[in-house]
What we know:
Layout: H1 3-23, H2 32-51, H3 55-76
Amino acid sequence: MSYTDIVGAVGVGLILLAFFCSTFGLIDGKSRLFFLLNLIGAGLACYASYLIRYWPFVILEGTWFLVSVIGLVKVKK
């Protein structure tokens, strides 16, 4: 596996972990942990997509990252 594969796999893994935990009631879908997992995961996936120059996923994961930042800020208030 290349560096970009590892970074992308870890990022997507964190997003999927957040989704799984939220779906099965292990964490609240509006918790700091949920948004933090999504934020870090989307950031890593966006970075990996940028490295391979796959722009549709740079936009998708970049948007996911920004929405997670907004969600995390809202939870902290």
